[in-house]
Amino acid sequence: MARTGWAWARLAGGAAILIALLRTLGTGPFVAGVRTLDARSVAAATAIGAVSTVCCAWRWGLVARELGVAVPLPAAVAAYYRSQFVNTVLPGGVLGDLHRGVAHGRSAGDVGRGLRAVGWERLAGQLVQAALAVLVLLALPSPVRSAMPVVLAGLVAAGVLLALALRRPARDRSRWSWVVRADLRALLARRAWPGVVASSAVVVAGHTATFLIAARAAGVTAPAGRLLPLALLALLGMALPMNVGGWGPREGVTAWLFSAAGLGAAHGLATAVAYGVLALVACLPGALVLVMSWATGQGTGAVTGRAEAPVAVGGGAAGG
Questions:
Q1: Predicted confidence band of residue 160 (pLDDT cuts 50, 70, 90)
Q2: What is the pLDDT of residues 74-86, one digit of tens each?
Q3: Domain assignment of residue 307, yes or no
Q4: 81 is a domain residue
């Protein structure tokens, strides 16, 4: 019951943001965000999306391998396209990832590890995105620059606490604590984390480039150096799981950022709408994956993989 209430609350929050934007700025920015897109911007976003999706799939494969549920890259790319499409068209923004984890876990013989692989993979991507955003926001002016020293101090403190928690003596740990500790040790292995960080950085660069394309299509002429911190902040806002088919926080955050930066809330809203359309077009191959899965009798499609040695509860890192 509580989960259902939270799901409805997230939908209501996203809808409320859209209604507030419509009442404040009208329908003009929404229409402009769609009408200003042309074939060049759509083609560029689709190509960037393909590179980003392959990098995401590779990152997932690295994490899954370390947790003992390896997934081949071709299957990972298809499953990732499908999950992105489902995330984009359904409320919440996480249902595609949930399905990806369950499907891969079932095909690998361990649903728990399949879900953990997806969870750690997405978390790793968010952490790298946040780290890159902090670096850019420290270097370039933005509406939140005055708060960055506090944010940086908080991140350093969180990192220290995490390191201390991992080094804490093993006694009195719950089984879940053992599993988390083992997973983290696996992901911090030398053969895993460089690839995870590098692929995540490419993905962030791809999303940022798509945002800049959307801004230019929406008629924003500000220099790229001025738009870059706004893009990274908007991307962080897009991660909030409170939307209606991907719409809501993205538009609200971007409109506020552009207004605070002196670029106009209407331009920010039009940019967010254009970005949403480009993101949807870029993940449309996922719809094809769904159709092909149904046509071949695989339902929503299983992910081919294999289960390896289980993560050791109470000790070593899986896979390395």
A1: confident
A2: 999 999 999 999 9
A3: no
A4: yes
Euclidean distance between CA atoms 77 and 84, whole angstroms? 11
* Of 68, 309, 312, nearest in space to 182 by CA: 312
Cβ pair 260, 143 in contact under 8 A: yes
Lowest mean pLDDT among 166-180, 204-218, 264-278: 166-180
* Alpha carbons 114 and 107: distance in angstroms, whole number: 9
Contacts of 95 (CB under 8 A, 6+ apart): 86, 87
- Looking at the domain assignment, is residue 267 inside a domain? yes
Say if 317 falls within a structural domain: no
pTM of the model: 0.85
- The domain tally of the chain equals 1
Q: The tokens of 98 are what?
A: 């949930």
- Expressed as residue numbers, the domain containing 197 is 26-295
User: DSSP letters along 181-201, please?
Assistant: HHHHHHHTSTTTHHHHHHHHH
